[in-house]
Task: structure prediction
Amino acid sequence: MSSIQKVDRRDFMKLFGLASAGVILGCNVGADSKIYLPKVKVAFSPNLFIQLNKDGSIILMASRSEMGQGIRTSLASAIADELEADWKYITVKQATGNAKYGNQNTDGSRSVRTLLEPMRKMGATAKQMLVSAASKRWNISQSDCKAENHFVINLKTKEKIFYGDLVDEASNQEVPTEDKLTLKETKDFKYIGKKLPSIDLKDFTHGTATYGIDVRIPNMKFAAIARCPVTFGSVKSFNDSSAKKIVGVEKIFKIDRKKPGIGQQFYGCLGGVAVIANNTWSAFQGKLELDIEWDFGENQSFNSDSFKEKLTKRIQENGKVVPGSKGDVFNAFEIANQTLEATYHVPFLVHAPMEVPNATAWYQKDKIEVWAPVQDPQTARAELATFFDIPLENITINVTFLGGGFGRKSKSDFVVEAVTISKEINAPVQVVWTREDDIKHSFYHATSIQYLKAGIQSDGKVNAWLQRVALPSIVSSFKPMSDYASGLELNQGFTNNPYNLENFRLENVKAEAHLRIGWLRSVVHIHSGFGNNSFVDELAFTAKKDPVQFHLDLIGKDRIIKGRSNYPYNSKRMKNVLQNTAKIANWGKELPKNHGIGIAIHYSFYSYVATAVEVSMNNGKVKVENIWTTIDCGLVLNKDNVINQLEGAAIFGMSLALFGKVTTKDGAVEQNNFFDYQMTRMKDAPNITIDIIDNINEKPTGVGEPGVPVIAPAICNAIFNTTGKRYRSLPLIDEGLV
Amino acid sequence: MKKTLLINGKNYTVDVQENMPLLWAIRDVVGLTGTKFGCGVAQCGACSILVDGKLIKSCSTPVSYGVDKEIFTIEGTSENLEYLREAWNDGNVPQCGYCQSGQLIAATALLDTVQNPTDEDINKAMSDNICRCGTYTRIRKAIHKAVELKNNNS
Result:
C-alpha cells in the first residue's frame, strides 16, 4: 500500500524522540478518511506509527486527544487486531500537535469514523511484512505461514517465530502495495467489536496519569489571571499592594486581550491581570487580593433573563426561512383537524470538565514549547505562530491527558495565556484556572428558544411542522455580527430531523451573542433533541396515541436519505433502535404509583439513538430511576467503551436537564462553582441499561456525543407521563423539581 | 514554616504558609500530583485524601492539620485500596480518569469503615465526589465487586 511506508529513521527520531529499533511504519491520513500519497519518500510526512521492538513490545502513536472517550484504546485495538498482536505488548504514546498526523482535532465524535480504516491498514501492513520475513527465513511460501497472537506460525512444521525476533528481517521487507493488502473479515475480529479495558487503567487508578495540571518543569512558575467579569471588558487600572504581600507571589502585571483577526479560526485570550507565584495556591490568593478597576465594555448590559424574554418575543414573529423547508405548512394548518403550539427554552451551559483549563508554556527566544490538555493541538500551534510570530516548526505542543474536555479544551485560549506570561517572565509557567474562572469565562453552549407548531389530522397523523429557532451562533466567536445560527448548526437535528414530514418549514431567528459561544458535547443537538422530542410527545398526547407508536408513525416508511455525506440517514435503523428501547424498557408495563416513563429518539453524528427514562415523583421532586438507551453506531470498535460512553452521556444529559444553567446579570456570569452550577452525583445516578445494535457491516459512526440529546426530553416526557405537567424550560431545578 | 509531612509512610519536609491547603502542599511542594484540584471549595472530592484514616477534602484543609498525622494519598497502597483498584480494572471504570483518585480514596474510606456497604451506604459515602464523565454506576458496581474480591480471598 503506497500510503504506508517505512519512515526515514532520522526523521522519525527527530520528530518523536523514540528509541530507534524495530519496524516503524507511518501512514498519511488527510482530511477525514482520504488517504493520499506522499510525493517524495525522503520528505514523507508520517502521522500514525507502529513501532515493533525486539522485545516484542509495540508502541502506537495516538493522534487524537484522550479525554475519557477511550480513543487511545480504540485506535490501538484496530491496529492490534489486523496485526494479530497480543494485547499485552501494546503501549500508546501521545502524538504532539503536528499537521504531519493529518487532522488531530478531537471533536465531532469522528475519530473512529475517520481513522478506523487507516489504522487497520497500518496493522495489516506490519503483519504482512512480518509474515514475509518469516516465510523467507523458512524458505517457504507466505501462504504456508500464519500470523497469530504475536507469532508467525509455519503451517507445515508448526514452528513459531516471535514477532520481536523478526524485527531485523521485517525491516528489510518491501512494504506491500495496497492491492496486496488483505484486511480481515469482520467475523475474524479478535479485538474490534469486543470488550477491551482502557489501556490507561493502571495510571488512572494510581494517580500516575499526567494531565495538563500535573506537568512539572524545572524552575517553573504558577500563574492565575483575574479576567473581567464581563466578556471582552478590559483593565482600566489596578492596585496590587495587598496581593504582593501574599507569600509566594513574585510578580503581577497586566496582560492584554489577544483578539484573532476576522475569519481566523483562533480563540486568542481575554486578557486581565496575571499573578505569578511559586505555587498555584499563592497565585490564586494573590488574584483574590487584587483591586481592579474594569472597563466593562460593550456587553455590560447583557442580562440573560431579559435576553430570554427578547428571544421569546422574536420567536413569535417570522424568521428567515431555511433551505430544506418544503410544502406549505400554513395551508396544511388550515386543513388540519387541530394544531398545537409550544415554545421551549434551553439556557446557556458550561462544560465544567473536572480538570480546569490550564497550560504550561515555555517561551524561549525563537521557540515555544507547550504542555497542555488540548483537544485541538494544531489550532493551538497555529494561533501561537500567528500571535507570537514564531515559525510553526519551532512550536511544540505536547498533548497531555485531558481531565475531561466536552468541547471546552478545543479552545486554546488558556494556551495563549500561558505563552503570553512565559514570554513576559522569561521562564516556564503553568497557568491554572480556578473553578470560578472556568464557570465565568468559558465558551458557552448557546441558549435557545424554539417555537413549534404542528397540524394533526383527524387520523392523528402530523400534516405540518413549523419550527422557529433562535440561538446565538458559534460563528460569532470567530466573526462578529453573526447574529443567526449557521447552516452547520441548523443541520444538527433541525433541518435533518428523523421524521417524514410532507409540509416542513424551518425559520431562523436572530440571536446576538454577548458571551463567547462555543460547543459542548453534542452541541446544537441538545436544542433540537429537546424541542423535537418534547413536542412529539405533546403531539402524541394530543392525538391520543402511544408515544412510541406515534414516533414510529412519524419516522414513517423505510427510506434512505443520502444527504451530502457518505452516511445516509436510514429510517429503518431509527425505528429499530426505538423498538429495541421499547422492548428493553418493557414499554407499556404497569408502573409503580407516581412513576412515569418517557421516550426520546435522536439522530446525530450519523448514529441512531433511542432512550427511555423512568422517573418517580415524591413530594413534587423528581428522581430518575432507570435509563435505557439503544444505539446503532454501525461497526463497534470497542463494545465496553461504547457502553461506558453512553452511560456517561446519560449522566451528562441528566446534569443539564436537572441543574445546568448559566445566567448573566449586567454582563457577568452569576454562577461560581459546583454549589451553584450543580452536577449529577452518585445519589442521583439511576440504573442505566445500554444496548448496542450489532451492525457490523455498517460504517462506524459517532459514539461520544449521540447519547446526550435524548436524556432531557425523555425525562420531561416521563414527568408528564406521571404528573400531566409539561416542562418546556430547562433546567428542572428552576421548576422546583429538584 | 518548616514542617514535616508523613505521606504514604514517607517523610517530606515542606516550607510553606500554615494556611496553605494540604492539596497544594502535596501537589506543588511535595510533588505528588495524583491528588487533584477540582473546585477549591470542598464541593467535588477530586482532592480527597485520608488523614489519620479520616476522609478529608485537601483543597479546604490547611497544611497545619496534616502535621504529625498520617497522610494517605492515591500514590499509597492499602489492602482495601488494592481490592478497589482490582475492581476498578475489572469494571473498566474510568473514562477521563481525573476524578478517580478522589473516588478511589473515598471508596477506601468507605470500605475502611463499612465492611459490606449497601447501595444506600455507597450513595451516602460517594456523593461528595463528582465525576463529570458519569462513571457512577460503574463505581457503584466496582465497590461491591471489591468487597466480593476481598471476601473470596479471606
Q: What stands out?
A: Residues 1-22, 27-47 of chain A have pLDDT under 50 and may be disordered.
